[in-house]
Amino acid sequence: QPRSRGLGDVYKRQGLAGAAETRVAAVCAVAAPTHLTSLGPEYDRPSSPASLLVGGPLAEFREAAQRASPLSYISADDPPCLVIHGDRDESIPISQSVSLDAALRAAGVDSTLVVLEGTGHRPALDRAAPAGRALLEFLDRTLGPGIRAAGRVNP
């Protein structure tokens, strides 16, 4: 029997309580590393955040880096995704978000890529900022505008 490799399967494999009943309804990734093995040589140093995450230099811990990469878990049943990245991000290459969006779309997942011109690694997410407006529009579209009106989401 084929195994799902989506987010729900990750929860089940980790033995998290209620995994069978829990379903993620929407995902927003902001300037996120999504494929650790393609971050670039500057991330291979033992002290890089990505290397610390996987237990050692990415070049030596490629299998662990692959397992820690969200790009490895995309499946057609994944929830809608909003991917936000600044075009001047010096921490995480924008190619990480472009690749994630392309892979999600190729799997048939509803994905929206928002590239913020002139923005670095930490875009403002308040209601007045472009990223914040994109996030609210995405949540309204995917979860319904009633979620905010009911006070269940208060960005």
In brief:
The protein is α/β, with parallel strands linked by helices and 155 residues long. The chain has helices spanning 7-13, 49-54, 62-67, 95-106, 130-143, 146-149; strands at residues 27-30, 81-86, 111-116. The chain has a three-stranded parallel beta sheet, sandwiched between helices.
Write the layout of secondary structure elements.
Elements: H1 7-13, E1 27-30, H2 49-54, H3 62-67, E2 81-86, H4 95-106, E3 111-116, H5 130-143, H6 146-149
Parallel strand pairs: 1-2, 2-3
The major sheet is characterized as:
3 strands, parallel
Oligomerization status of the protein chains = single chain
Q: Give the strand tally.
A: 3
Distance between the termini: 41 Å
* Overall morphology: globular
Helix content: 25-40%
Instruction: Give the helix/strand class.
Output: alpha/beta
The unreliable regions are none
What's the arrangement of strands in the largest beta sheet?
A: 1-2-3
Helix run count: 6
String of helices and strands: HEHHEHEHH
Q: Supply Rg.
A: 17 Å
Strand content: 5-15%
Mean pLDDT over the residues: 85
